[in-house]
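Supplementary Note 2. Why include the ligand at all?

Several targets in our set were suspected to adopt different conformations when bound, so apo predictions alone were not considered sufficient. For every target with a known small-molecule partner we therefore ran a joint prediction. The input for succinic acid is given below.
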Amino acid sequence: MSSASLASSPVQAASQQFEVRPFAANVGAEIVGLDLSRPLNDADFARVHRAHLDYHVVVFRDQQITPQQQIDFSRRFGVLQIHVLKQFLLANHPEILIVSNIVENGQPLGLGDAGKYWHSDLSYKELPSLGSMLYAQELPSEGGDTLFANMHLAWDTLPEHLRKAVEGRSAVHSYTSRYRDGHNAQNWRPTLTPEQLAQVVVVSHPIVRTHPENGRKALFVSEGFTTHIVGLPEDESQQILNELYAHSVRPEGVYRHKWAHNDMVFWDNRSLIHLAGGTSDHLRRRLHRTTIQGDAPF
Ligand code: SIN
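The joint prediction is reproduced in token form.
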């Protein structure tokens, strides 16, 4: 049983009238009419949980919530993970990572290159993330979209030669790969202390994982954090990974989220990879992320 289904509201609040409207793409739905500043009763929570499992990313429109309310709602799905870059955690709310391209007085306000490469949040941990919630605070007048790719579809449609190449194999995920090969050219990521390095030792996970709640298989590799396939020569591993990456983000499995003010987006890191589409340096973008811990992939 998942941690989400075990969690329950301390108060049985009144039911809210809301709609779940799936997008036309193979991924995503919007949830309209639900007010996350009010406690959700168990039936409403179960509908949201179901939508999250079915559509993999849900967009809550028109939310006016405090950092604590975002944290409380996120906690109903599981334990929250604290990002290793303490510099970018919201003051008094370390459960919230600030994602932002804003630099004030020479200091970055948040993690400016979060999501620059396709990835699944915290796949470099023994217990990667179940899901993440990203709440818009300040949005640019153009750009700043977030893209989501359906990794169940990627597995279901994977060509036979790639299935054979990866079934039963594992791949290594490394947080510090973000610091190599010019990936940190803009210096968004501060140098890690020995204590921070100890929190992000490399891990390996199955390349094909089974979602613990919906039972479906999904590819679980990404250009963001996967470095190589265990037991294969470097060139062969890289060639297979490149094919997997290209296949994963084919347009039919991708939803592009164009942010509206007061959107909160909640995605499933076990089913999707995601990418920040990019924002021009002269435009300001700031969002608050909570990250929910998941199970060890199997
Ligand atoms: C992230 O990868 O968590 C951030 C995505 C975004 O900024 O659009």
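The longest strand covers residues 129-138. The chain has a mean pLDDT of 92. Comparable summaries for the other entries are listed in the accompanying table.
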